[in-house]
From TrEMBL:
Keywords: Membrane, Transmembrane, Transmembrane helix
Phylogenetic classification of the source organism: Archaea, Methanobacteriati, Methanobacteriota, Stenosarchaea group, Halobacteria
Pfam families hit by this protein: bPH_2 (PF03703)
Listed name of the protein: PH domain-containing protein
Keyword Transmembrane helix: yes
UniProt keyword annotation of Cytoplasm present: no
Domain YdbS-like PH: 93-165
InterPro entries the UniProt entry points to: YdbS-like_PH (IPR005182)
Transmembrane segments annotated in the record for this chain: 46-66, 72-92
Amino acid sequence: MSAVDRSPARTDDADDPLEWLVLLDGDGSNAAESIRWRGGPRLQTAYPWIGLAVLGAVIVTAAVVLGVVSALWLLGIPVLAFPAIWAVASVVRTEYAITNRRIAIRRGVLGVSVETVGVDRVQNSAISQHAIARAVGYGTVTIEAASGGTFSFRNVEDPTAVHDRLEALNECGRPGDLPGSAAEWEAVLAEIQGWRQVLERSS
């Protein structure tokens, strides 16, 4: 498993540090945080809005040329284009990341909002794809956290690979995966019980 994967949904270099997420240092029980995957929504998801804006502009322009409406209607073209501009900006300004310790989402057009949840807090994850998304290879990965919150990687490239990476990290991070053998932990338990008996006799 490589330290960082590149998502074909974005053209930026996945080896670059995330400007919007400060990676955590390592401590006694956790390794230093590193990026395992990063990506974002496919720009193609904004195409319907772009198509509507272009169609509206063509209809208004044709109506003006044919004399059906006055030239003042041309001033409404920016209004028709606004939803498309907003949709493109939303895609460009949204980024998802999976590290060895956290899941993070950055979104926001006018401002920046960052949501994070620890990998060990992930309870369940699922993939959803409509027919068109399945045909062209993108979908949404929904993540349920122990706190009750829900995080969604919307319209990402190859959602199955993203889901598999998340599940693998979740398995590695479960509390049940403790270091040491069962015999070693039994020895620790016996030692604790011995100290407890000594304390009880001394009291």
